[in-house]
Amino acid sequence: MLKTLARAGAVLDLFTREQPELGVTEIARRLGIPKSNAHALVHSLCKIGLLRRTPGNRYALGWKVFVLSQRLLQSTELRTEVLPVMQALVDRFGETVHLAALQEGHVVYVEKLEGTRAVRISVSAVGGELPPHSSGVGKVLLAYLPREQVRAIVDRQGLPPFTRRTITRWEELERELVAVRERGYAYDLEETLPELCCVAAPVRDHSGHVIAAMSISAPAHRFRRYRDTYTQAILQAARKASQNLGYIPNGR
């Protein structure tokens, strides 16, 4: 049973933004299992709504995945406690504010609010995933992990370049993460998308563990002009969000 569940999870993991549809033959090849086994897995996942059949005998994620994701967002304490803090930032600056967590070495965007001055950022849709090395939220989430865990993530998925400013060397990333821990926040200076910058800070739970990161994103020209203001604002907001989750700074 555990093996079957693990394989079912592996099937779901194959579907990405870049590869939203797959055939049984391709699923079998990627997982290294017989085609008959892949067909049985896909059939079972379709019956419970986690996959759906598309034209041409191909498959895509089913709407049950969306329903479950909405239930998770509605029930998670992290989102409900942090959302008012994020909204206050959007009301103040009119920019895009993100909340993200780390799962299996990838940044997962838990919430995203856009203000009146916000530019559209397609890569950070709620539920979307990105490698963590280029974004402000990703750097924050990596910075508070043990070094060996960060190295394992980098060894597994590399440091792909998104722009000419993206960090692509381990030594440079390691130095950057040390700096993030020391100052308590991280920048993305056109490292994920050209002409887009952000600053991010850690969100802690009641025990002090960093469980998420919050960021303000803005066009590069505006961000550089107001960088200090944005930085102080995200630090204050992240502290407020952490306190909402029960964190007491310095044990007081």
UniProtKB/TrEMBL annotation:
It comes from the Bacteria. GO terms for biological process: negative regulation of DNA-templated transcription. It holds the Pfam family HTH_IclR. InterPro entries: GAF-like_dom_sf, HTH_MetabolicPath_Reg, Tscrpt_reg_IclR_C, Tscrpt_reg_IclR_N, WH-like_DNA-bd_sf, WH_DNA-bd_sf. Residues 64-247 form the IclR-ED domain. Residues 2-63 form the HTH iclR-type domain. Coiled coil: none annotated. PANTHER family: HELIX-TURN-HELIX TRANSCRIPTIONAL REGULATOR, ICLR FAMILY, TRANSCRIPTIONAL REGULATOR ICLR. This is Glycerol operon regulatory protein. It comes from Thermaerobacter marianensis (strain ATCC 700841 / DSM 12885 / JCM 10246 / 7p75a). The lineage of its organism: Bacteria, Bacillati, Bacillota, Clostridia, Eubacteriales.
